[in-house]
Design a protein that fits this description.
The protein contains no helices and eight strands. It has about 80 residues and is mostly beta strands. The protein has a domain of about 55 residues. Strands 1, 4, 7 and 8 form a four-stranded antiparallel β-sheet that branches. A hairpin with a 3-residue loop joins β5 and β6. Bound molecules: zinc ion (ZN). Zinc ion binds next to loops.
């Protein structure tokens, strides 16, 4: 995704970013998983890390509107630890 994204509310050019998720080891990029969440005794939620799609979020600097995209090849997550 290289083209500029315009805010649907006020047509300002949106900034690329992401929403961090807190983990025990620090922060990681928010991800999207298919299906419904399944509880795991050990991990909180049971999930296949190879199905994670990193979520890229654009922010409007004018009105603060957020727009998120889950694209596999948009921005590589820096720290996705394999279980
Ligand atoms: Zn806006």
């Amino acid at each position: 995704m290289s083209k500029a994204v315009e805010c649907i509310k006020c047509q300002a050019q949106m900034e690329l970013g992401y929403v961090p998720d807190g983990t025990h080891g620090g922060y990681t990029q928010q991800g999207w998983f298919p299906g419904v969440p399944v509880k795991s005794f050990w991990m909180g939620l049971k999930m296949e890390t190879n199905q994670l799609v990193p979520v890229t979020t654009f922010r409007c600097p004018n009105c603060g509107y957020l727009e998120s995209y889950a694209l596999p090849n948009a921005t590589p997550a820096t720290t996705v630890t394999e279980a």
